[in-house]
Amino acid sequence: MDRNAVVSARRTPSVPECNISTSTLAFDQHFATTAKGVLIMAEIVFGMLVWILIGGTEYFHFSALCWVMFVAVLCWILTICLFIIYLTGAHHRIPQIPWATLSLCLNCSATALYLVAAAVNASSVNQAIRGRHNYNCWAASAFFAFLTTLCYAGSSYLSYRAWKTTEGGQ
């Protein structure tokens, strides 16, 4: 048997190639200065403030605040993942995923969830004693929850515009 035939047979990949670039991820310095980047960073900061302010209290006695924590932490984690994907330019390296549609769905869902969570958070403030630690933290978290909702609404609008241009071009 020919040695070159054996070597080339061993090097043949058994997994089909998906046409994904294997180069290192690049850092996009300009993304953080765009409107989309600024809104995502604001969502991360304000969302973190929401769950930190609630998490520092005895929220687990109130099921409504458990819902707010779930929404805040879930949206925070998903937003960080999306931010890293955009910041590293991975969305350009994986064209099989419709990033505009994914971003639109994430932002619209987060807007709706955060709107409900902010309203629930604001209505739960009355269950704490005014002037105490829980009251102050829950009131501040309600404020930041509404602020986060506005940020997600702005991101939803920008995602919708990007989705419309992507869909129009196809």
How are the elements arranged and paired?
Layout: H1 3-11, H2 35-55, H3 63-88, H4 90-93, H5 99-124, H6 133-169
Helix pairs in contact: 2-3, 2-6, 3-5, 5-6
How much of the residues is beta strand, in percent? under 5%
Order of helices and strands: HHHHHH
What overall geometry do the principal axes of the alpha carbons give? elongated
Number of strands: 0
What does this molecule look like?
- The chain is mainly alpha-helical and 170 residues long.
- The protein has six helices and no strands.
- Helix 2 (35-55) packs antiparallel against helix 6 (133-169).
- The chain is elongated, with a radius of gyration of 22 Å.
- The protein starts with a helix and ends with a helix.
